């Protein structure tokens, strides 16, 4: 005999939004300000959410209230529901207004500056009624914003592992070369390369570079870090260390870098990322289609 269905708790999106705000800010006062209510109203809403779910979601840590393990599980559910509801609200607003709406896209600097500026410019010309908001940043942070529904689309380095709730489509393949500081022996075997200046630990590109340098037989002793390729270029020029950079970012501008070796050390794949099973406004679908056409080309 099938077991009877579990009755659904009578939750509100507002209660879930309160929980998401607490998870993002870390303090109840900041969370209340984020959602535009008083700390007392936030506390009452979360207490009611806890009662309706029927599990202990918070515990005391000194004077602070922090999420329990069960609370973190409820938070993950709340983030998904709030993100999907925000998608629905934006889509419905576009339908009511009879417009194609708004697109929030995130890109790493190489995509925004070197690979896709013409596509973005053409999209703006072809869709003058669309509000196009571009955020440039590292891949990991952009994907986090995509999962939280703060962005609609992201062009980034392919993550080393699948991101739950996100699908990726390869856009282009980008070569990375080795660059040496002035006076370095570029004829030396890889064991003589280094020390290195590179992207911060944890970045997707840094992980690719570290594996490729090790595979070439060189030690990967990083002495300086920056998310910005332009800063890494300056560090190399100052003699701080060697680096590995995407060719368009290293060998462009008024003072292009010369690679220590012409053959790329490694390639990285830039992907188009979007949330799965989401209601996307027409404007988002239009830009998504334009990017997929670029990938096919």
Automatic annotation (TrEMBL):
PROSITE patterns assigned: HTH_LYSR
Q: Which Pfam families match?
A: HTH_1 (PF00126), LysR_substrate (PF03466)
Protein name in UniProt: LysR family transcriptional regulator
Keyword annotations for this protein, in alphabetical order, are: DNA-binding, Transcription, Transcription regulation
Query: Per its record, what are the GO molecular function terms?
Result: DNA binding; DNA-binding transcription factor activity
Q: Which family does it belong to?
A: Belongs to the LysR transcriptional regulatory family.
Output the CDD domains linked to this UniProt entry: PBP2_LTTR_substrate
Q: Please list which residues make up the signal peptide.
A: none
The record, for InterPro entries, names: HTH-type_LysR_regulators, LysR_HTH_N, LysR_subst-bd, WH-like_DNA-bd_sf, WH_DNA-bd_sf
Which part of the chain is the HTH lysR-type domain?
Answer: 11-68
Q: Which GO terms describe its cellular component?
A: cytosol
């Amino acid at each position: 005999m099938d077991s009877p269905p579990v009755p659904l708790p009578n939750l509100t999106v507002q209660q879930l939004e309160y929980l998401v705000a607490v998870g993002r800010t870390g303090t109840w006062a900041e969370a209340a300000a984020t959602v535009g209510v008083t700390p007392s109203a936030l506390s009452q809403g979360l207490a009611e959410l806890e009662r309706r779910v029927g599990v202990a979601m918070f515990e005391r840590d000194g004077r602070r209230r922090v999420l329990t393990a069960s609370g973190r599980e409820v938070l993950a559910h709340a983030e998904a529901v709030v993100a999907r509801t925000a998608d629905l609200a934006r889509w419905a607003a576009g339908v009511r207004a009879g417009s194609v709406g708004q697109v929030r896209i995130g890109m790493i600097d190489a995509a925004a500056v070197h690979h896709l500026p013409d596509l973005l410019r053409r999209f703006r010309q072809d869709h003058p009624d669309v509000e196009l908001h571009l955020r440039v940043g590292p891949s990991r942070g952009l994907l986090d914003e995509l999962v939280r529904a703060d962005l609609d689309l992201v062009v980034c380095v392919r993550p080393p592992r699948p991101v739950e709730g996100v699908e990726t489509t390869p856009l282009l393949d980008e070569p990375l070369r080795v660059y040496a500081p002035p006076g370095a022996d570029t004829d030396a075997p890889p064991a003589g390369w280094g020390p290195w200046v590179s992207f911060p630990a944890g970045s997707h590109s840094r992980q690719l570079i570290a594996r490729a340098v090790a595979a070439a037989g060189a030690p990967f002793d990083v002495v300086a870090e920056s998310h910005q390729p332009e800063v890494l270029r300056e560090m190399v020029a100052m003699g701080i260390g060697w680096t590995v950079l995407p060719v368009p970012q290293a060998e462009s501008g008024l003072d292009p870098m010369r690679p220590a070796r012409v053959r790329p050390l490694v390639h990285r794949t830039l992907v188009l990322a979007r949330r799965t099973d989401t209601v996307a406004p027409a404007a988002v679908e239009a830009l998504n289609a334009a990017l997929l056409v670029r990938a096919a080309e």
